[in-house]
């Protein structure tokens, strides 16, 4: 007899969402993570209205905004020049991942998942995980939600990610002064890294500052980070950078194998334009859990992947379109044309924010971009 119906590996947004959804629907769930909670994680911590909507659906309650900074404005910059400041936009909630992830983890335990945090996995097989202390757990279905450096993905495919297409980011947390976080600029800087951008996100007690982009064309991301910090008036020699890989739209077309599923960053489900990952992590975790429940209900655990792929298709389609549009927005040869268009076109700016808020999907944006392509190409010729 298996110990559990489902083992979820990784207790971040994807894993906690999967564990919560499965446990709420009657499954016996083990939630495994190498860290003890609360634990910190490098992340801009942007929690959009899309994220909030998924949170309400999955966890059955509204998101507690008391420890977040909510903004209705954002500034966009390029090469030290301000492109636009948008006001009265859909709310953007800025969170600390230490708080957010711990909240989600506690929701999963409250729903009935069994806590296996602080446990290190030595080996994974089809229906079993073996811990380094020699103990093991068994289940007919495994869900790998263990981030971009996923050991589950490595078990399935030999590597956690494709080194040629993966992104990379550097971040720091700047301790806060007495300035009200609502008064500090929330900004995104296009081109702060090649095929990427920089960000400055004010929180309650600190500001998260970082740069990120595709790793291959950025062999010296630290140089980009130092330049960006100087742009913001910060001393790069006074801080220590922390780095992490970013699945910048490098999603896996086949997110698993038979009864083993991948969700969130482990499946590469991150928006390659906005960088949003929390919303896609929670939603893919929910979809993975429901696919597992359906496969178990049918008495056929190995059909879990087929069910998961069928439901995940729309999300992957959106990210595939986003990956195509990224070539227009971030490619160095088009950067000037894009920034000129962004500065001049209120419609483009509004669409970008509606996209971030979850009010607009990429197929709609793509149609609008195609309609504006002749003007965009003309702008490119005026470089």
From TrEMBL:
Q: Which Gene3D superfamilies match?
A: FAD/NAD(P)-binding domain (3.50.50.60)
The record's listing under SUPFAM superfamilies reads: FAD/NAD(P)-binding domain (SSF51905)
Q: Which InterPro entries match?
A: FAD/NAD-bd_sf (IPR036188), Geranylgeranyl_Rdtase_fam (IPR011777), Geranylgeranyl_reductase (IPR050407)
A molecular function annotated in GO for this UniProt entry is:
oxidoreductase activity, acting on the CH-CH group of donors, NAD or NADP as acceptor
Q: Which PANTHER family match?
A: CONDITIONED MEDIUM FACTOR RECEPTOR 1, GERANYLGERANYL DIPHOSPHATE REDUCTASE
Record protein name field:
Geranylgeranyl reductase family protein
């Amino acid at each position: 007899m298996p110990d559990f119906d489902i083992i979820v590996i990784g207790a971040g947004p994807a894993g906690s969402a999967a564990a919560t959804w499965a446990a709420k629907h009657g499954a016996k769930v083990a939630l495994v993570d190498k860290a003890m909670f609360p634990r910190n994680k490098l992340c801009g911590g942007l929690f959009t209205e899309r994220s909030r909507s998924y949170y309400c659906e999955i966890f059955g309650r509204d998101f507690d905004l008391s420890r977040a900074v909510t903004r209705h404005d954002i500034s966009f910059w390029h090469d030290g020049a301000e492109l636009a400041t948008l006001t009265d936009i859909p709310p953007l909630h800025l969170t600390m991942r230490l708080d957010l992830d711990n909240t989600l983890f506690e929701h999963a335990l409250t729903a009935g998942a069994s806590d296996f945090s602080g446990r290190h996995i030595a080996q994974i097989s089809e229906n079993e995980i073996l811990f380094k202390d020699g103990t093991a757990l068994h289940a007919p279905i495994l869900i790998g939600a263990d981030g971009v450096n996923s050991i589950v993905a490595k078990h399935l495919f030999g590597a956690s990610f494709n080194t040629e297409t993966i992104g990379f980011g550097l971040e720091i947390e700047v301790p806060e002064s007495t300035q009200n976080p609502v008064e500090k600029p929330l900004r995104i800087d296009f081109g702060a890294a090649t095929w990427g951008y920089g960000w400055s996100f004010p929180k309650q007690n600190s500001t998260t500052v970082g740069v990120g982009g595709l790793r291959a064309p950025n062999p010296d991301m630290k140089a980009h980070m130092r330049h960006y910090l100087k742009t913001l008036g910060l001393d790069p020699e006074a801080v220590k950078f922390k780095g992490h890989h970013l699945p910048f739209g490098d999603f896996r077309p086949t997110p698993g194998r038979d009864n083993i599923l991948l969700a969130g960053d482990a499946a590469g489900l991150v928006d390659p334009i906005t960088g949003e990952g929390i919303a896609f992590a929670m939603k893919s975790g929910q979809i993975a859990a429901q696919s597992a429940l359906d496969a178990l209900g049918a008495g056929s655990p190995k059909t879990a992947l087929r069910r998961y792929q069928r439901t995940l298709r729309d999300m992957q389609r959106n990210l595939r379109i986003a990956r195509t549009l990224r070539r227009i927005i971030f490619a160095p040869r088009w950067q000037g044309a894009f920034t000129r268009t962004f500065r001049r076109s209120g419609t483009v700016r509004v669409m970008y924010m509606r996209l971030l808020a979850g009010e607009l999907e990429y197929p709609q944006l793509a149609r609008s971009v195609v309609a504006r392509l002749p003007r965009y190409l003309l702008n490119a010729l005026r470089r």
